[in-house]
UniProtKB/TrEMBL annotation:
Name under which the protein is recorded: tRNA-dihydrouridine synthase B
Recorded family membership: Belongs to the dus family. Belongs to the Dus family. DusB subfamily.
Limits of the DUS-like FMN-binding domain: 16-321
Active site: C103 (proton donor)
Enzyme class per UniProt: oxidoreductase
Functional note: Catalyzes the synthesis of 5,6-dihydrouridine (D), a modified base found in the D-loop of most tRNAs, via the reduction of the C5-C6 double bond in target uridines.
Cofactor(s) of this protein: FMN
Transmembrane found in the keyword field: no
GO molecular function (one): flavin adenine dinucleotide binding
Organism (species): Pseudomonas brassicae
Length: 337
């Protein structure tokens, strides 16, 4: 992959952590950047600034220490509110504004935001023009291929976006109606890539280095957005980057490295959110990291009952010690056999 530029920024590589509400907070963004992501995008922030005073919203904003270029995703259905939200985020330190027209969640779509906007091309144009005019930083856009299988207008929306001055476009290869089911439509992304001259990033089902290569070959995209596959596996960026550059697969991380990364992540969550909220948010991340390891289900049932930061860290260490011991036992039996 050649270097990708978004406005004045040249990305370290063309692998981007997709924004995910409740997941891509500052600790996770910093971790994925260290693990090889070329760009990380904040959680979706509502364009309704009256909601920004809640603690939850404040934690979603840009913070000191966020990796640059700092990209913030905003969502809403009113052009002037989105423009005002974009300005406020830039004043707070955002260096790229990303507009969400890809989220299929009901609570977002019912407010005529996210992928619901794809139904109204005139409104899409009005929003994009307003936000681009409101800020002097690059504006990017995330879309789906359309509203449903009978209304796939991703190509039209991509052209509207380019005309409006959008500097890069991410396309999730499903319609709003598909949610996250079925296979992603890489042919639609390929058609969009052919139709516009701005960078196009492919998104959807990129779960391994091999799949990353296939998606790039199938779409001709300039880069990839990786979302759910990075949950509990932030090293996927390192693995994909290495494979695309060399054609070789990196070995999977050893248990000791997974433990180190997870404990660092826990410490960052506890520090960022404070003890009570940090402990609660850590539970889902620990579940993702350990999902494929033997004994994880029983461990999680116990772990989710813990309500103290030191207890969480001690329990994770104990789990990995047990795993190491059982592996040593299995190796020993293998040698004896």
């Amino acid at each position: 992959m050649s270097a990708v530029r978004i406005g004045p920024y040249t990305l370290q590589n063309a692998l981007i952590l997709a924004p995910m509400a409740g997941v891509t907070d500052q600790p996770f963004r910093q971790l994925c950047r260290r693990m090889g992501a070329g760009l990380v995008v904040s959680e979706m922030v509502s364009s309704d600034m009256s909601l920004w005073n809640s603690r939850k919203s404040r934690l979603r904003m840009i913070h000191d220490g966020d990796p640059e270029p700092r990209s913030v995703q905003i969502a809403g259905g009113d052009a002037q509110m989105l423009a005002a939200a974009a300005r406020a985020n830039v004043e707070a330190g955002a260096q790229i504004i990303d507009i969400n027209m890809g989220c299929p969640a009901k609570k977002v779509c019912n407010k005529a935001a996210g992928s619901a906007l794809l139904k109204d091309e005139a409104l899409v144009n009005e929003i994009l023009q307003a936000v681009v005019a409101a800020v002097d930083v690059p504006v990017t856009l995330k879309i789906r291929t359309g509203w449903d299988r009978d209304n796939k207008n991703g190509l039209t929306v991509a052209k509207i976006a380019e005309q409006a001055g959008i500097q890069a476009l991410a396309v999730h290869g499903r319609t709003r109606a598909d949610l996250y089911t079925g296979d992603a439509e890489y042919d639609t992304i390929a058609a969009i890539k052919q139709a516009v001259s701005i960078p196009v990033f492919a998104n959807g089902d990129i779960t391994s280095p091999h799949k990353a290569r296939q998606v790039l070959d199938a779409t001709g995209a300039d880069g990839l957005l990786i979302g759910r596959a990075a949950q509990g596996r932030p090293w996927i960026f390192r693995e994909v980057e290495h494979y695309l550059r060399t054609g070789e697969l990196l070995p999977a991380p050893q248990l000791a490295e997974v433990e180190r990364i997870l404990l660092e992540h826990l410490a960052a969550l506890h520090a960022f959110y404070g003890d009570v909220m940090g402990v609660r948010i850590a539970r889902k991340h620990v579940g993702w990291y350990l999902a494929t390891l033997p004994g994880a289900k029983a461990f999680r049932a116990r772990f989710n009952g813990l309500d103290e930061t030191h207890a969480q860290c001690a329990d994770v260490r104990a789990f990995f010690r047990e795993r190491e011991q059982s592996l040593e036992t299995e190796d020993g039996q293998g040698v004896a056999a």
